[in-house]
Amino acid sequence: MRRGAKISAAAGLLAFAALVPRLAWAHCRLQYQVIGPGGLFYQVALGSIQNLGVLPGGTTGQLGAEVSWTDIRQLDLTGTIQVSLTATDLTGAVTCPAVSLNLDGPPSCGDDFSPEVFPVCTPSFTVTQTAPHAFNCSSACVSYPQPHAWLANYYLGNAPGPPVASLSPQSAIAGAPSVAVGIRGSGFIGASQVQWNGSPQTTVLVDGTSLLALIPSPLLVSSGTNSITVLNPGGISSPLVFTAGSLTPAPSISGLLPTSAMAGGAALALTVNGANFISSSTVLWNGQPRQTLFVNATQLSAEILTADIAVPVTADVAVLTPGNGTSTAVAFTVTAAPSPATGNSTFLFRDSYAFPSPSRRGHPVTIRLQAGLADSVDVHVYDLSGVLVNRGSPGSPQILDDGNGKGLQYTYDYLWDVSGAGSGVYVYTITAKKAGQSDIRKMGKVGVLK
Fold this sequence. Notes:
4 domains, 6-stranded mixed β-sheet, Immunoglobulin-like, mainly beta, 3% helix, single chain
């Protein structure tokens, strides 16, 4: 017996195939394809012949073994033989369940050979390493419509892939979430693998005419056409075209609400009005995405952060829809906050009055003094007979412009609760004091109507 090994590149799960191709008149050749994890030894058993071929650990590829015609005749190739595979890493091993290989007729190893020498199916084994020194293995016998032609072409390196007919869907929006694509055709098997531009994707076998593949969102980032093919052991289908691109117009902005904010303010909800918005549209603030709520196709709401409006700036607001483009930016103005109000603190009388006058239906009366900054302010209220009916102090002043033409002033307001006073005219006095300054004393009248 003479053995030889022929290696060809492959990747993925361990697949094993046996076939009897056409060779020179002196020998029959049994050829196997072994693809699996590196660092293992793979041993082939065909019927009563053990260790027909050994693939050294760390090697993946195609293993061939030549056996003389006499040796082949010792096997009962006219009936059913068992084909198995053992994988080992010296301390752990797994033997794949045997696959029954049915042959229709006696072998012919000369130049003239007939299809009967080929099995009606090809043994296929899948080995996975689940842990150090631990493996799993499953087996199947894969049928092909024309095994003779398929195997002959496979030996020549031109194995045809499964026929593919259609995709559903045939397109998606660029930047869309993951898409499940259905592939219709024939000749699909458990080992069939859908490829996206040559890269294998998660594939589910529905039946012999249907596959389902999950195309992840990172592959849909850019617009363009992509090739989808189906790879069977030894052959690849013709490509089908899947388009990732814009299915709706680019977004546009017609207005913002609000259009401005004061620097140093709190975070705000920005309403963006426009057109062609979808659920994946995002509002951009100076090119940076902000949390966005899709309201409808003409309105979005975005959260503008406190940090975004911390200082005066003119910001660019735009809308990005993945795959459809970015809108023209619209300006949002962050204005400077006004300087803190300042009044004239000089201790000097500016104005005094009481309001409302008359007070109706128990409305409190405000007695006001504008006289700069004072150390103390006292208010007394008398009836017309001179009886004191109320007294108190207004407390700290506020700076305001009350429209009396004097501008911003330090203003003292005393609130008189008139609930205990009867209807009539009352006299009030205001006394403001400041150390080192002459007191300011003012008097006025106010009416009360119950």
